Amino acid sequence: MENINVLITSPMNSYLEKQLDKRFNLLRLWTFPQKDEFFKEYSGSIRAVAGNLHVPNDREFIDSLPALEIVASYGVGVNHVDLEYCKERGIKVTNTPDVLTNDVADLAIGLILTTLRRICESDRFVKGGLWKAGDFKLTTKFSGKKVGIIGLGRIGTAIAKRAEAFNCPISYYSRSKKPESNYKYFPSVVELASDCDILVVACPLTEETRHIINREVIDALGPTGYLINIGRGPHIDEPELVSALVEGRIAGAGLDVFENEPHVPEELFKLDNVVLLPHVGSGTVETRNEMADLVVGNLEAYFNKKPLLTPVV
To answer: Which residues on adjacent β-strands are paired with residue 236?
Structure first.
């Protein structure tokens, strides 16, 4: 397969690049300063793309690669890929589910604890020498809080199981009620937000879930409620969240993702009741390497005419 041209759209993982280099003729898009010249030379021979959300695989991008046969996404989300157009063109699409579930769920719990217990602020308190002047202020407990989860898929379910260990009552919202679940179901996000102390966003990003967290939901969560987002930034109407946090209309937020990454609203930088992470939900060496193995495995399966490991399209 060394003669098959595979395009990787942005730096993602050195292990992934090494594994692709061993098996294919790997083209690194970011190493070509003149993109027009690159596409003029290689577009007709690129049969596969390995990418992530940093470079949209939209209609224009797909049309620039007339020989494209498969898009292997390095991540579980595929909102950066025009799936309908891929179907129309007969282009296969794969992702990397399951292997990142535990890391993302772990991080969600970490965000909850860090936000409610003000761990980052406590750290600065000690390092700034303030402890000598008196004890740190009291914070909010996690155990026993009512946790509402938007999206009870693999990751949402893993978060729920972890929160149960903290004796938290669990409720959820999804497109339909899960008959196999014993958790309390709410038919709307507003109703879910009204009934929980901590609202966790864990659903895929689609047109239906874009800005699923709006002013109405934020107000329903209320001044004692916390918002945790380990889904995608556009799930939240970001200006509405910023104003709610600044005005104290919700108690706090733990955010791993943002609407215009890597740009983050600067108003959040001054707030002690907000924990901000640089989209690292799956960011462990072990998981990122497993994700890379799935990308490579899907490409190998496709070009060896075997069933795809994790097909989306």
So the answer is: 213
**Residues 278, 242: Cα–Cα separation, whole Å:** 17
Q: Is 121 a catalytic residue?
A: no
Look up 54 and say whether it is catalytic.
Answer: no
Q: Provide the token pair at 119.
A: 């761990």
- The percent of residues in the chain predicted with pLDDT above 70, rounded, is 100
Catalytic residue status for 235: no
Closest CA to 189 of 150, 157, 226, 154: 150
Select from 312, 309, 292, 310 the least CA-distant residue to 21: 292
Instruction: Report the run of H or E that residue 252 belongs to, with start and end.
Output: strand 252-255
**In terms of pTM, does the model score above 0.85?**
yes
Catalytic residue selected from 232, 235, 240, 259: 232
Q: What pLDDT is attached to residue 135? A: 98
Hey, what's the torsion of the CAs at 278, 282, 283, 286, to 10 degrees? Answer: 180
